[in-house]
Amino acid sequence: MLNIPLWKRILIWGVCALGLVLAMPNLFYSRVEGHNDAVRKIEQSGATEALRAQRAAWPGWLPSGLVNLGLDLRGGAHLLAEVQVEDVYERRMNALWPELRDTLRDLRDQVGTIRRQDAGPGELRVRISRPEAMDAAMQAVRQLAQPVTTLTGVGSNDIEVSAEGDELIVRLSAAERQAVTDRTLQQALEIIRRRIDEVGTREPTILRQGDDRILIQVPGIGSAAELKALIGTTARLTFHPVVSRTTDGDRDPGPGNMVLPSMEEQGVFYVVEETPVVSGEDLTDAQPSFDQNGQPVVTFRFDPAGARAFGDYTVENVGSPFAIVLDNEVVSAPVIREAIRTGSGQISGNFTVEESTNLAILLRAGALPAGLTFLEERTIGPQLGADSIAAGKMAAFVAGGAVLIFMVASYGWFGLVANVALIVNVGLLFGLLSLIGATLTLPGIAGIVLTIGMAVDANVLVFERIREELKTAKGPARAIELGYERALSAIVDANITTLLTATILFMMGSGPVRGFAVTLGLGILTSVFTAIFVTRLIIVMWMERRRPRTIEV
Amino acid sequence: MRLKLVPSETSIDFFRNARLTFGASVVAVIVSVLLFAIMGLNYGIDFRGGSTIRTESTAQVDVGAYRDALSGLGLGEVSISRVFDPSFGADQNVAQVRIEAQDDEQSITPETVQRVKDALKAVDPEVRFTSVESVGPKVSGELIRTAMISVLLSVCAVLIYIWLRFEWQFALGAVAALVHDVLVTVGIFSVFQIRFDLAIIAALLTIVGYSINDTVVVFDRLRENLRKYKKMELREVMNLSVNETLSRTVMTSATTLIALIALLVLGGDVIRGFVFAMTWGVIVGTYSSVFVAKNIVLFLDVKRDWSKPDKTAGTQFGNGTA
C-alpha cells in the first residue's frame, strides 16, 4: 500500500506535468491567441511581416491549445433559427403539379375534369369530376412516384397517393419528408457557414439542433441583428424570364411580373416574370472559367429536372435575356445565345476574374433553401464579458486563497499537501479543458470555483479517516494506509453520483449550462485523481524520507 | 494548534429533537410547495419568453423616466430594475429592462430592439446596451420541459445508483433528502421572487449532486457500522455514523461554502442568482443529509442480514480491495 512502484510514480508525476504544461498557455491568453490567429492567417493567405511578428510572440514548440471563451465571456451573438421546411414541401408539391396535371389530362375520358384544391404544405389535393374513376387516377399518379434515396428510406417512394371522396390526395412520404428536411438543413448549414466565413470571424459555432433547427454562435460580432442581416433570412436563387429593362423602379410591372433592382448597376431595374423557370436548388455545380475570348465567365450545371425545364425554356427563347436573381436582386441578365439542352451553360457578363469567382461561390452556395424563423437570440457586449471574466477571476483567487488557508489551519502539514493537490487539480482541469477545446462560460467559472471547494472533499474524507485510524491503528504508516483504503468507497460513491448529474446536465443542457457541466464533470475526475494518487504519493514520499514515529493530522 | 470546527469526539443524539428537525423539514417542504402553487416563480425569459436588455450608463438610472419612455411603445408589460453589485465602479449604473413576449413574434425583431434603444437614448444619451437577449415562446416551453426532465432524470439516476450500491431503503432516504433540497430551494426562490432561469436549473442539479455526495458519505459509514455492530440498535448505529462523519461533513461544507461565498460577493451580478441557489442548496443539503435522509431509512427499517456481505449488492469497493 505504501510501496508505490516507480513506474506508477513516474506516471502520476508525468500526468501532472503534462496537465500543467497544457494549461500553461492560458496564463498568456492574448499572446497565445494572437499566435494562433497569425498561424491560421499565414496558412490561408501567406505571411506578412506583422503576422510573422505576431506568430513569434509565442514559441511554436510550446502547446498552444486554449480554453475557448464562451459568448457570455467574450461577447458576441447567438441565434437559434428554425428552418421553414414546410416552404420546401410546398415547393415540391407545386413543382409536381404540372406533371400531375398532364398525367390526369391524358386520362380525361375516364376521370373527367380536374381542379386543384387548397391543401396544407406537403400536400396536393385534386378534385376530379368522376369519382368512380378514382382508382385509375390513383394508379396513374402513382407512376409519378420515385424511390427515395436515403439510408433509412430504402424501398419507399417519395410520394403517397390516397383518395378522400372525389379528392385525390398526394402527400410526401415520411421518408421523403425526412430526406427533404435533411437536405434542406445541410444546405442551409453550408450556406450560413459560408456567409459567416466570408466575414472571417473567429471560431463561429454553426450546428444543427434537433430536426429543423440551427444554432449559430459568432463571437465578436456586434449584435444578433447584424448576424441576422449577414445570414439573410428569406433569400433564394432563381432564374426568371426578363420582360424589359428600365430605370424606373416604381413602374407598374403588369400582372404576373415584378420589378427587381440590378445588383451591379445603380438605378437599373428589370421587369421579370414572377414565376421562375428554374431555381437554385436545381443547380448542381457552378465554376468560374473563361470563354473562347478569354473573358471570365461562370459555368453551371443543372440536375435532370432543372436541365429539362431550362432546356425547354431556352429552345423557345433564344436571343432574349433571362435574369439570375439572388436576394431579390438581379445578379446579371445574360442573353440566351443558343438552346441549352445539356443542362449546363455559362453566364457571361462584364466580369472580372474575382467577380466570376464570387458569383460561382454564390451560385454554389446559393441562397437559403427556405426561410428562417429566429426562436432565440442573444447579444452580449464584449465589455460585459470582460467584466464577468474579471469578477470570476477575482472570485476564484479569493476562494482559492481562503480554502488554502482554511485547509492549512485545519490539517497542518496534511492541509499543505491537500493544497498542492488543489493547485495541481485546477491546473489539470485547465489542461484538460484546453486539450479538448472546451468552451468556458460564466457558469463554467462558477463550476471551477465550486470544484475548488469540493476538490478538497476527497482529501478531507481521507484525512478524517486517517485521524480516526490513528486512534486505533498501530503506527502512522498503518493509519495512512487504512485511511486511504477505507475512505475509497465513500469517495467513489460520492463522486460517481455527482458525475451522474453532471452527465445529465451535459446531455440536456445547452450553451452556458453545458459549459458548467463540462467543468464540473472534469473537475470531479481531476479532483479524484489528485486526491487518491497525487496526495497519497506526496504523503508516501514524505513518510519514506522522514519516517515519523507519530503524525498529527 | 489545529482549527477544529467539530470536536474530535462527538456523541450528539441527532434523533433527540427528531420531531423538531424532521418536522421542520416536512413543514418547509409543504410551505415551499404551497408558495410555488400560490406565488409561482419569477421566471426569466428562458422559461417565459420575452426579452431582456441590459443597460449601462455613467448617469444615474432613473427608473421612472425609463418606464415613461418605454410605456408609449406598446410593448405590453415592461419591467425595469436597477442592478447593484460591489464590483461596479462608481460611475457604472446598470439596469435591466424586461419586455414580455410580443404577440406573433418568436423572438424580438431588430426594429423593436431599435425602438427601445432609441427611446432609452432619448432619456439618457450616455446609455450603452451591454446585452440584449430574446427568447421566443416556442423555445421557452421546450426549455421548461427539458429542465424538468433533467431534474427528474438526475433524481432517478441517483435513486438507481444508490439502490445498486446500497439497499432500497437507502435509495429512498437519499432521494427523499434530494427532493427536500430541491423543493426548499424552489421555495426560497418563490418567497423572494428571485429570477428563475436556466442557470438555476443547473444549480438545482448541482445541489442534487452535492447533497447526494454528503448523504452517501454518511450512508457509507452507516453500511460499514451496520456490519461492525450487528447487535446495536439501528438508531444508535445511525447516531454513531453521523457523529463519526460529522467532522468531514462540516469541513467539506465549510470549504465549499467558502468558495461559494467568495463567488456570491465577488462573482458579479450576472451569476448571483445561480450562486445563491448553490449556496442555499449546500446549506440545505448538509442539513438534509444529517437530519432527513437517515430518518427515512430508520422509518423504513433496514434488513440487517449482513452475514454474507459479499453477496449483498455492490460491496465490492467497501471491502478494501483497492
Kindly describe this structure:
Helices cover 54% and strands 19% of the residues of chain A. Chain A is an alpha+beta fold. Chain A folds into 3 domains: 185 residues, Multidrug efflux transporter AcrB transmembrane fold (Up-down Bundle); 93 residues, Gyrase A, domain 2 (2-Layer Sandwich), CATH 3.30.1360; 127 residues, Gyrase A, domain 2. The mean pLDDT of chain A is 82. Chain B is α+β, with helices and mostly antiparallel strands and 322 residues long. Chain B has 2 domains: 197 residues, Multidrug efflux transporter AcrB transmembrane domain (Multidrug efflux transporter AcrB transmembrane fold, Up-down Bundle), CATH 1.20.1640.10; 86 residues, Alpha-Beta Plaits. Chain B is 60% helix and 10% strand. In chain B, the strands form 2 sheets. Chain B has a 4-stranded antiparallel beta sheet with strand order 3-4-2-5. A two-stranded parallel sheet of chain B has the order 1-6. The interface between A and B is large, with 81 and 82 residues.
